[in-house]
Amino acid sequence: MTIKGALFDFSGTLFRIEPADAWLRAVLDASGAVLPEEDLLRYARRLEDAGALPGGAPPLAVPPHLSEVWGTRDRSAEEHRAAFTGLAREVPLPDPELYDALYDRHMQPAAWRPYPDAAEVLGELRRRGVRIAVVSNIGWDLRPVFRAHGLDEFVDAYVLSFEHGVQKPDPRLFRVACDALGLAPEDAVMVGDDRRADAGAARLGCRVHLVDHLPVERRPDGLRPVLDLAGAARRRDARSQTR
């Protein structure tokens, strides 16, 4: 199989959200509110356990009254906000305005860090002529994050679930991405961290490569094997043409 295109997930694959304590601290600082450090860390742990940080840890348990919107959270901006602010409201915070402020914070480019090898891998794929799409289950426009961190120049197409009303693992979202790149699914690899959601691309015939969803410091080169996949595919293709 010649890899002509690479589909990349966003959160946990190319970028990682800031830790829950940094997330809460940034919102408190912006509002001018002050909490004792012990209280701040306690609230951050409870928010993380609730799954209130998009891109962070999943909820330990989804409350029954949020189960429906949680299941469809990536199909629209409204459902995404409702799901995550709903989970945050399970944690009593000192100011009710913090819930929406926390949600707004996670959409800011400063809340995200690219993995150390993201620019290198995307740039090398582009140099090799591999077309690149970002395919994400998300409820907001992540393009400013890529622009702010200098990765937008490597991306040919963004396929975001809330813009299409379809979320992974539905193969229709991967089909949109392949069509946007002008490629057949069998010529593309899907790179992601979610075995259930991202592996849905295999149903179309895409190859799937999974990476570990780890903090940035603990995954310095998790994306580099994608270059080996692309190189190996090209070498096989070259050998077949010489026979």
From TrEMBL:
Pfam families recorded: Hydrolase
Keyword hit for Transport: no
InterPro entries found in the cross-reference section: HAD-like_sf, HAD-SF_hydro_IA, HAD_sf
Coiled-coil zones: none
Keyword DNA-binding attributed: no
Gene Ontology terms, MF aspect: hydrolase activity
Keywords for this protein: Hydrolase
PANTHER family registered for this protein in UniProt: HALOACID DEHALOGENASE-LIKE HYDROLASE (HAD) SUPERFAMILY PROTEIN, PTHR46649
Protein name in the entry: HAD-IA family hydrolase
Lineage: Bacteria, Bacillati, Actinomycetota, Actinomycetes, Kitasatosporales
